């Protein structure tokens, strides 16, 4: 298995881990959201069911209490009707002409005894009765009446309905009671004919209080008896403040015969139920604090939400810790492997933690260092092999080039053109002397320019169309560059630029210093290359050498990078002359010398024989 295949396997496995944090967060959300939705729905259903059951239960209990009160009132009314037909009672309302005092006393005693027996049937609901004889202007009662027979009192209260009032002498709340008057007259109920027998049935507000106290012991509410405009009858342990607020609410919102409302008092919710009494036209009202009953459900719900929130925070925290301690190191490792895949073997990974990943990083750095050393050794061996090949080629005389130059000398000699013969021989001698010297791998830019002058003068003698211009700044000429760096590129311009067109012949060599780099431009006015071909050629300079590629330009580019660093390279663009431009860029080394002539042209300088 090759390195690329192994890297792809590691990449595929690591990619699955790369999104582990996002997957975990998504999984946490997917797990939590349905649970919260289901629990919220279940809690709402439970809350609604409990609320509904509470309302129904409260209504039933309140209705039952109201029916008990109405039942006792009905018993009192039935007793009053039956009691008014009692012979002794009717006898009490007679003239009693033939009766002596003893009979009268006996009659009164019997009537009082019957009323006392009826009143003492239950301790919870003591009742009071009184018999009025309009004819005798007398009254008999089973309780201590503060006043005797009062005609006006009867007339005021003969309404046929239960009334809530005092006994006519005191308006304090303690003496107030519910009263009902029944007459045995055949006249319409509520009217007196002057000889009627009137039975009074009454009970104190304490009877209602007794019922309310009994009701309160078996429930959660705070009941009271209410009638608008009257002082309400409260149970003996009633919350005075809450009741006062509720009375204010009921005075503004009169209840119906049987209603239920949820109202908010003092930032708390209360269930207010009311049932109207059939006889008294008062309302039996019960107020139940919903927060006290439904509070445990709300507390349980809030506790669940807090627990879910804590679990969510713990899950997210675990995901973050997993990301920091696992995913980030894996991501860093993947990034390092990608850089290694791109050929950057100088990458090193560092970890502040001392865990398994620090060991992996250490092994990765060791592996990367070994690979870098191996690659550099192999690369240097290849460079040396190519340099050896280059030196071998330099040592060999190009027969074709040499034959053409010698043929030119022979022709010029036959034509008696001594100047051309001398010029060709001098330039040819200087050119081959420089190219065959192998003592040093580098030379000054000035020596390389002299070699170009020799070479271009030779080509100019052979091809009269060639014109060249060399314009290099003086401060650049003293810089050292690899030997024979420029000549192969200029030769390409001569062969592939000028040589392929009969209308072209200009070659321009210029230089500049900018941005800490030296730049040399070699331009020709030949046919050049298309933008696609230029881009392909530039791309090949950045790729490893392949078998189908020529090694001349690539080797020149590698020699630049090897000597001056990664910011040095060859770059190919369109020339301002219309042809092809080769741009040579290298970083300026420290402490370079600056002292040589500039602005060289053809026939003005020659290669240094002593370089």
From TrEMBL:
Subcellular location(s) per record: Cell membrane
Keyword Kinase: yes
Stored PROSITE patterns: HAMP
First-listed, main subcellular location of the protein, grouped into a coarse class: membrane
Membrane-crossing segments per the record: 20-41, 303-323
Record bears the keyword Transmembrane: yes
Annotated GO CC locations: plasma membrane
UniProtKB keywords: Cell membrane, Kinase, Membrane, Phosphoprotein, Transferase, Transmembrane, Transmembrane helix
Alphabetical list of SUPFAM superfamilies matching this protein: ATPase domain of HSP90 chaperone/DNA topoisomerase II/histidine kinase, HAMP domain-like
Pfam families, sorted: HAMP (PF00672), HATPase_c (PF02518), His_kinase (PF06580)
The protein's name in its UniProt record: Histidine kinase
Lineage: Bacteria, Bacillati, Bacillota, Bacilli, Bacillales
